[in-house]
């Protein structure tokens, strides 16, 4: 998942159970019982808004996330790698479409969501605002970026909003393929020439810290996560997910033979977890605010693709209209 900035400010509510309306009480009881909220059910406006924001941000991230890797389709080193990469990038497009559909069930149109992305109002994951400089970046994105995405998304399969949780089940299965193909591509490179090994290490050095930031700000600086947890939208805190990711990744790095670029990364016997160094949050927020190396390029590419595809949408609408008229005539 790519939802690092999911919190909505100003939605802190103390649960005052005595004053609940019947519909509020029903909603609360369903959440309490770990049930699912469906599109036709009553839900608090703040819950709806939080979900629209999170799901649309997730959808945008999938679609923008196609760009850094799509860049390498024409330069993949073999037919096999090209086929895998095309399939992976296509999967990300599919994830975006499921997620836009899930967000539409909350009463927001796709046009509104796309406009918010194109105007810069809506965010997407900052990880995609960094360039892919060499072929090893494609492997590292699969291993670490998709790996972090899986860590984030597995708990979302149990999200309280039905359409989102169901979309996540399929998305997670595909993400797991993405992670493996990336890791396997890197394993092959690490068995190759000195230059190939250097490429992998260089890519790991550039992506590691950015992947740790994908889990979002530390829990202490993420006050709105509490409400998302209460609503069953978020199940595991940013810091816990980050720790799980580090713990899972260190042994994989050992097998691969790369060094994770953190001198403070050490096993802590007492905590039974790896300790790790400080994330540069200033750089993270700077990129979220639009000043990363590729923010402008990514957005401009999306806007251009949308404008270039206008004639296709118009032709499809005209054709659908014609078909509907024909069906109407035949029925008459
Ligand atoms: Fe995805
Ligand atoms: Fe993916």
Which molecules are bound in this entry? fe (ii) ion
The helix count comes to 13
Mean pLDDT: 93
Low-confidence stretches: 4-16
Spatially, the strands of the biggest sheet line up as 1-2
Q: Over all CA atoms, what is the radius of gyration?
A: 22 Å
Number of strands: 2
Helix and strand element order: HHHHHHHHHHEEHHH
- Tell me the overall shape: globular
- SS class: mainly alpha
Distance N to C terminus:
49 Å
Assess the beta-strand content as a share of residues: under 5%
The description of the largest β-sheet is: 2 strands, antiparallel
| Helix content range | 55-70%
Question: What is the topological layout?
Answer:
Blueprint: H1 22-32, H2 45-64, H3 66-70, H4 79-104, H5 110-118, H6 135-153, H7 162-190, H8 194-213, H9 225-230, H10 238-256, E1 266-268, E2 273-275, H11 281-291, H12 295-308, H13 310-331
Antiparallel strand pairs: 1-2
Bound molecules: fe (ii) ion (FE2) (2 copies).
Explain how this protein is built.
With 332 residues, the protein is an all-alpha fold. It is built from 13 helices and two strands, in the order ααααααααααββααα. The chain has helices at 22-32, 45-64, 66-70, 79-104, 110-118, 135-153, 162-190, 194-213, 225-230, 238-256, 281-291, 295-308, 310-331, and strands at residues 266-268, 273-275. Strands 1-2 form a two-stranded antiparallel sheet. Strand 1 and strand 2 (273-275) form a beta hairpin. Helix 2 runs antiparallel to helix 4, helix 4 packs antiparallel against helix 7 and helix 6 runs parallel beside helix 8 (194-213). It starts with 21 loop residues before the first helix and ends with a helix. One fe (ii) ion is lined by residues 62, 92, 95, 171, 175.
């Amino acid at each position: 998942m790519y939802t690092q900035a999911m919190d909505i400010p100003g939605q802190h509510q103390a649960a005052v159970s005595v004053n609940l309306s019947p519909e509020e009480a029903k909603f609360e009881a369903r959440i309490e019982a770990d049930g699912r909220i469906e599109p036709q059910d009553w839900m608090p406006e703040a819950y709806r808004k939080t979900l629209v924001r999170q799901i649309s941000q997730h959808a945008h991230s999938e679609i923008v996330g196609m760009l850094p890797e799509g860049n390498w389709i024409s330069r993949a080193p073999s037919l096999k790698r090209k086929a895998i990469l095309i399939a992976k990038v296509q999967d990300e497009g599919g994830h975006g479409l499921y997620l836009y559909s899930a967000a539409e069930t909350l009463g927001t149109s796709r046009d509104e969501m796309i406009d918010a992305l194109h105007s810069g109002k809506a965010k997407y994951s900052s990880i995609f605002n960094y360039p892919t400089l060499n072929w090893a970046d494609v492997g590292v994105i699969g291993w670490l970026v998709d790996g972090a995405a899986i860590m984030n998304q597995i708990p979302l399969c149990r999200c309280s909003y039905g359409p989102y949780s169901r979309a996540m089940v399929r998305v997670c299965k595909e993400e797991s393929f993405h992670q493996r193909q990336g890791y396997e591509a890197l394993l092959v490179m690490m068995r190759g020439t000195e230059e190939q090994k250097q490429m992998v290490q260089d890519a790991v050095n550039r992506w590691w810290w950015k992947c740790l930031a994908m889990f979002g700000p530390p829990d202490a600086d993420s006050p709105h996560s509490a409400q998302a947890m209460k609503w069953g939208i978020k199940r595991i805190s940013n810091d816990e997910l980050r720790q799980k990711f580090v713990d899972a990744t260190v042994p994989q790095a050992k097998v691969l033979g790369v060094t994770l670029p953190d001198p403070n990364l050490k096993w802590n016997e007492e905590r039974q977890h790896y300790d790790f160094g400080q994330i540069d949050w200033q750089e993270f927020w700077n990129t979220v605010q639009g000043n990363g190396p590729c923010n402008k390029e990514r957005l401009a590419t999306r806007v251009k693709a949308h404008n270039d595809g206008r004639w296709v949408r118009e032709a499809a609408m005209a054709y659908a209209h014609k078909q509907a008229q024909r069906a109407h005539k035949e029925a008459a």
